[in-house]
């Protein structure tokens, strides 16, 4: 893995830079996840097309440091991604973000407009208020979540998500969820709609119908569906997600 001391997080952030062809694709994971854990299966799939990929573990997750004195806000996680792509000297790149990572990817695309070849997001947080899971995490104060709720959530999970969540810092998860609930102004949806780069919104078939998916589909923005999958599409149907991503990034 490669690493960088982030001036934003005041900690080391780590990532895989996997060799391949074409414009590099930066992957940004969701809440409780890690790109190093979730995405190797996707990018190794023959359907993905052998592309160069940068799999970043955000601070608080995976192999990256987990500082206590960092706010883990969407805005600051965005800054960390920008630090990494600048360190890699990527003048032009694609970016893919899932769930919380989708919100971060939207902000990266807004900040680095001319450097974004294409933005692809799957089931992102578009609005303040968070999703069901974000709201569940912050039902209790941070200290109580860390001391009690975090372990209870892990004990009740058997999905692949548990593997990454048990290696995430509970304070990172709580503060990240709180930032999603607080939202931003303008909203991530407004930012997404006003971007000039090529964009695609992906949803899992089992997550539909969805009002945001329907709304975006009526705009001049492409949409795609991963069959036989819901929100956790990278685990539920990895080959299909790999094929969808390859198709979308081939179209530019």
From TrEMBL:
Enzyme class: hydrolase
EC numbers, comma separated: 3.1.1.-
Database matches in Gene3D superfamilies: alpha/beta hydrolase
Pfam families membership: Abhydrolase_1 (PF00561)
Gene Ontology biological process terms, A to Z: acylglycerol catabolic process
Cleaved signal peptide residues: none
InterPro entries found in the cross-reference section: AB_hydrolase_1 (IPR000073), AB_hydrolase_fold (IPR029058), AB_hydrolase_sf (IPR050266)
Record keywords, A-Z: Hydrolase
Superkingdom classification of source: Bacteria
GO cellular component, as recorded: membrane
One annotated GO molecular function: monoacylglycerol lipase activity
Annotated ranges, domain AB hydrolase-1: 24-127
UniProt name for this protein: 2-hydroxymuconic semialdehyde hydrolase
Species of provenance: Yersinia frederiksenii
């Amino acid at each position: 893995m490669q690493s960088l001391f982030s001036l934003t997080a005041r900690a080391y952030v780590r990532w895989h830079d996997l060799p391949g062809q074409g414009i590099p694709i930066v992957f940004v994971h969701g809440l409780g996840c890690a790109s190093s854990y979730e995405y190797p299966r996707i990018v190794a799939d023959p359907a993905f097309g052998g592309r160069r990929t940068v799999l970043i573990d955000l601070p608080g997750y995976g192999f990256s440091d987990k500082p206590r004195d960092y706010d883990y806000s969407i805005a600051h996680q965005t800054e960390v991604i920008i630090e990494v792509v600048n360190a890699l000297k990527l003048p032009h790149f694609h970016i893919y973000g899932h769930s919380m990572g989708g919100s971060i990817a939207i902000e990266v695309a807004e900040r680095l407009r001319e450097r974004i070849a294409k933005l692809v997001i799957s089931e992102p947080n578009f609005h303040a208020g968070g999703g069901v899971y974000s709201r569940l995490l912050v039902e209790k104060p941070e200290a109580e979540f860390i001391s009690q709720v975090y372990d209870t959530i892990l004990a009740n999970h058997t999905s692949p998500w548990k593997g990454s969540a048990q290696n995430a810092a509970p304070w990172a998860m709580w503060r990240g969820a709180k930032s999603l609930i607080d939202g931003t102004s303008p909203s991530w949806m407004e930012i997404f709609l006003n971007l000039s780069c090529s964009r695609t919104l992906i949803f899992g078939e089992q997550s539909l119908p969805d009002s945001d998916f329907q709304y975006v589909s009526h705009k001049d923005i492409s949409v795609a569906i991963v069959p036989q999958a819901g929100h956790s599409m990278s685990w539920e149907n990895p080959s299909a997600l790999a094929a969808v991503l390859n198709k979308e990034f081939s179209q530019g």
